[in-house]
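Human: I would love a firmer grasp of how sequence relates to backbone shape in proteins. Could you go through the record with me and say what the backbone is doing? Here is the record:
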Amino acid sequence: MAALQKTTAARSRREATVNIRIATETRDLIDSAASALGQTRSQFLVESARRQAIDVLLDQRFFVMDSDQYEAFLAILDSAPPPNEKLENLMKKKASWEA
């Protein structure tokens, strides 16, 4: 009974399928790399794509700066932008959830 529950749990975690077409040489390269890590092709592809996806998203949300850069950044955030027509028009618009 426990083995059946374990199998069902594993299936529920993997509920999406991704099919791709790649050059044979690329597939062979991936297979060699996966084998070197003791992984299946699927394990290797999923983990590689997952790491890349995390990196891409972090690059858009996370950045590092020294203390001087951080102070300058805070100063910019604390200072109001100069008035301009585009900003004034934006501030006059109702938010989509208010319409």
